Amino acid sequence: MPSMLCPLNSDMRFVIYVKKGIYYENVRVENEKWNVMMFGDGLDNTIVSSNLSIASGTPTILTATFAAYGKGFIARDMGFQNTAGAAMYQAVALLSKSDQSVFYRCSIDAYQDTLYTQSNRQFYRECKIYGTIDIIFGDSSVVIQNSTILVKRPLLGQINTITAQGKSQPAFQHWHIHTKLYYSTCRESFGGSNILGSAMEKLLDHCYHGKPIGKLD
């Protein structure tokens, strides 16, 4: 990935085209890389892939296949995946700490801790998000719009959780989710419940179509 070539602290948009292919690497757009835009040939065609996981001794925050820190980051028509698998526990596909970041027509695919919306303001539209436990988690102010969340089969005895929030103090952070939820296998085969949201710390203020978070009916 050519993100290392981006100018530092630039107010100008720096656009990178990533052609069709699977890129086996861990990519990090650093704090000083502002206003970077990456676009590919489609969410199933341009894919960044890795398999770092907490089970292999890597801290959760460092397992991310793709991490965006510099403000104003945009990704379009790309896929981000972590192929570690359910048995490897926390393994992040995409982490964003980029303020005013946008992900449009992207695929974000893993099992536990798929999408780490770490902090700041973020917007996701027409994305596909796959996972099992704590699929979307973090402490950011997020809008996920016109997107699809696809729940995979977890390990035996596990409970699928769509969202989990880690904040401990009330602030402006919140999630507003307008999506469709799908299951990759029938619910009875999971051997447990599927939960829309859980609190990892003291507070929980997610909403799903403006409704309180709880068990799926």
UniProtKB/TrEMBL annotation:
InterPro entries, alphabetized: Pectin_lyas_fold, Pectin_lyase_fold/virulence, Pectinesterase_Asp_AS, Pectinesterase_cat
Source superkingdom: Eukaryota
One biological process term from GO is: pectin catabolic process
**Single GO term (MF):** pectinesterase activity
Q: Name one GO cellular component term.
A: extracellular region
The record's principal subcellular location, in a coarse class, is secreted
What class does this enzyme belong to in the EC scheme? hydrolase
Q: What residues sit in the active site?
A: 134
Pectinesterase catalytic domain sequence ranges: 7-171
Q: Which UniProt keywords apply?
A: Aspartyl esterase, Cell wall biogenesis/degradation, Hydrolase, Secreted
**Catalyses which reaction(s):** [(1->4)-alpha-D-galacturonosyl methyl ester](n) + n H2O = [(1->4)-alpha-D-galacturonosyl](n) + n methanol + n H(+)
The protein's annotated pathway? Glycan metabolism; pectin degradation; 2-dehydro-3-deoxy-D-gluconate from pectin: step 1/5
Entry EC number(s): 3.1.1.11
PROSITE patterns linked to this entry: PECTINESTERASE_2 (PS00503)
Q: Where in the cell is it found?
A: Secreted
- Supply the name of the protein: Pectinesterase
The organism named in the record is Buddleja alternifolia
User: Which lineage?
Assistant: Eukaryota, Viridiplantae, Streptophyta, Embryophyta, Tracheophyta
